[in-house]
Predict the structure.
Amino acid sequence: MTDVLLTVGTRKGLFIGRRRGGAWEFDGPHFNAQAVYSVGIDTRRAVPRLLVGGDSAHWGPSVFHSDDLGRTWVEPKKPAVKFPKDTGASLERVWQLHPASDAAPDVVYAGTEPAALFRSEDGGETFELIRPLWEHPTRSQWVPGGGGEGLHTVVTDRRDPDAVTVAVSTAGVFRTRDGGASWAPSNQGVSAVFLPDPNPEFGQCVHKIAQDAVNLDRLYLQNHWGVYRSDDAGGTWTDIGAGLPSDFGFAVAAHRHRADTAYVFPITADSDRVPAGRRCRVYRTGDAGGSWEALSAGLPEGDHFGTVLRDAMCTDDADPAGVYFGNRNGEVYASADDGDSWQQLASHLPDVLCVRAAVMR
């Protein structure tokens, strides 16, 4: 069985799992008592670099990196992510750490709260604010979502390093095709049922976006009500939520090799926010949202209340794919066969905020 590195960011530190052969071993917490909202695993290097967005209640947020799979960590002497003084803003949280594709070596993006995008060209050791998005003419009308005003999703295109798509809660999807020099809202077809105008140009509460493995112009979007697909890199969106027990949720992930295959974890909303029907179920589509299949083998059978947050579900790049999720009950589950069957890897952890995995070659 393929060796895998699994990182689990929680409300009180980072836990690292390693599967060697068929057995899992976990260590941690790293960054004890810090909330870890973001982890990036940069596999473009000979030895993968781990990037962690930690949030200390005493020292504030910081970005750490490790080049020995978590045995030791480096924190820059100066903050890696910092708002320039003239912005009048201060960093509250790093929501996303996203290594770009091989087409942009050493480029790492950081999405933050307040909602902004930062770019690093040294593997995540230092970052610079991408000002055209920060200064976008719509910014004064962005409204924080229930979890704050965060830029929580970054999607890059291995065909074109100048093409970047981001999602902001609650401003929606924005795209650049010129390396960040200009940005345009890209929310056509995504509904905002909580606004007087349910079809605005921007202002949607997008929870997460994932990119198809084969058709890179195909994106999957989990909204605050609504699951959508785009076939033109986010230019327009089509509702694909039919067949799900609820089209509300936070997480969406895509298979890394198989076309048209994506995963969601439906949630009952708005006030309840527990698994749909109180059942712990992942739903998979194999036809780009034309139909959905409930995946339950090995998952809890009775009433279940473990909510899966936006970054707490992921896939690895094995084939068959490993699929992973953690929940607010502190449980972590894994599948080594595309989601057909599951096992529990951990329980009684702190509140799980993010999960990332990579095959170790």
User: Anything to note?
Assistant: Residues 131-134 form the longest helix (4 residues). The chain is about 0% helix and 40% strand.
